[in-house]
Amino acid sequence: MTDAILQIENLTRQYPGFLLDHISFSIPKGSIMGLIGENGAGKSTTIKAALNLIKRDEGKVTFWGQDLSLSEGLKEDIGVVFDGINFYETLTPAKVGNISGAAYKQWDSSLYHNYLQRFQLPADKEIKNFSKGMKTKLCIAAALSHDPKLLILDEATSGLDPVIRDDILDVFLEFVQDENHSILMSSHISSDLEKIADYITFIHQGKVLFCKSKDELRYRYGIIHCKTEVFHTIDPSEILAFRKDDYQWNVLTSDKERARRKYKNAVIDDASIDDILLLYVKGVQQK
Amino acid sequence: MKSLILKDLYNIIHNSKSMLFILLFFAVVFLPSSGIQGYIYTCAILCSMMIVTTLSFDERSDWMSYALVMPVSRRDLAAGKYIVLFLFSSIGVLFGLIVGIIGSFIHKSVGLLPENLSEIPLPMAALTALAFSTVFGSISIPLTLKFGAEKGRILVFASFFIPVAICYIIYRLLAALGIAITGSSLAILLYCSPAAAIVWNYFMFQISCFILSKKEF
């Protein structure tokens, strides 16, 4: 990918019982990259390693072509929202604004207060009285008010109701209207990514299984539902993963149109990101 | 750096009422027996201990991982804590001085305060209290960073008693050897304490930087 805002190459980190194994992907300007995978797949570890919060055993991470550890100033252009709020519960949004304002040169106080109003967050109420959704909105307001060019969201929408998630996703879509802006969004809620992501990177057991455009997944990937006799006639090179249910085989293929032409006795459906995730995680992957 | 200090001050202001109550309670209890000097030391050390509370708040809200995604370095994180420690100790000294002076007048008026409690002049007592409290507080920062607020809190108590115990043992050894610590040699030691505190704090700051450089969030 050209014009990459964030480039991750062979990012590796070994823990006892877990290996983040040579993760590579990049995020082009003006796009949203969805990082998907089951809990414990390595999404948060990837983000933390990219942000230098944990050490890497191997690999290179660059933001706008530069190493974050060598250019602290790059952090001015990066907004981060973690799962949960990182401010102590007795603080108020007004104080959070003062703290953040003192940290960032590019801090825009009026923009921050606009977000507080838009998200209906009372400026002088202590965070401990906020709901999970309000806390997330406060984190997003803080992350967006220093004019970042890259927004990194680590499970930011998890645990929120669909209405609040929808509000928040709209804010992210607005953010990427500027073609210099990009988002890296890790989530295990595939519907969120299906709604806004341009690219999907699927991490499973510490490895990248694929990094593809969402349109390619949507328009080309499919699920072949068939009986055992048909399953045995499927060319193994067309199978990405398969799983046997009680009455049928479910086969993930990367070319559903070809499958529709070839396997007339099978039902071939579009594959949602959830279907793809489930077949990769719970099914058998074809080598 | 400013944001780190501001955050700690905002966090601790919430606890200031209970600290104020404790300090006033100690004024009533200690001023008659220990004098203003003793009270200044008490206030400074108690206030310096609040640095552990700020680290505990940081741990509970996972603040440091967020701070590091802001334009803040790991060294800034350590430096911020030492500046806040200095501020807390200074506030303690100032509070002890003001309340101590007011309190001693009240005690004198009701005849509770003994005369000539201490020979240390008040400005020197304030300066040495600042030195001692930052020395004690500075040990707690790397300990808490390394072992976490929960274990660190227990170790912090140890860190307060160990220097006192060492000083006491040295004093007893010298006494056993027939070397008497006179008032003038004690005064020299006290006058040297601010310089020693600066060196000690710098040493502890470097240890804190090292711990933070290895820490993963």
Structural notes for this entry:
- The complex is a heterodimer of chains A (287) and B (217).
- Chain A has 287 residues and is of the alpha/beta class.
- Chain A has helices spanning 43-50, 93-103, 109-118, 132-144, 162-175, 190-196, 214-220, 228-231, 256-262, 273-282, and strands at 4-15, 18-28, 32-36, 58-63, 78-81, 150-154, 182-187, 199-204, 207-213, 222-226, 241-244, 249-253, 267-270, 284-285.
- Chain A folds into 2 domains: 4-216, P-loop containing nucleotide triphosphate hydrolases (Rossmann fold), CATH 3.40.50; 221-285.
- Chain A is 32% helix and 29% strand.
- In chain A, strand 11 and strand 12 form a beta hairpin.
- The longest helix of chain A has 14 residues, at 162-175.
- The relative contact order of chain A is 0.15.
- Chain B has 217 residues and is mostly helical.
- Chain B has one domain.
- Helices cover 85% and strands 0% of the residues of chain B.
- Chain B contains 7 helices and no strands.
- In chain B, helix 1 (2-13) crosses helix 5 and helix 6 (122-176) packs across helix 7 (183-214).
- Chain B is globular.
- Residues 113-117 of chain B have low confidence and may be disordered.
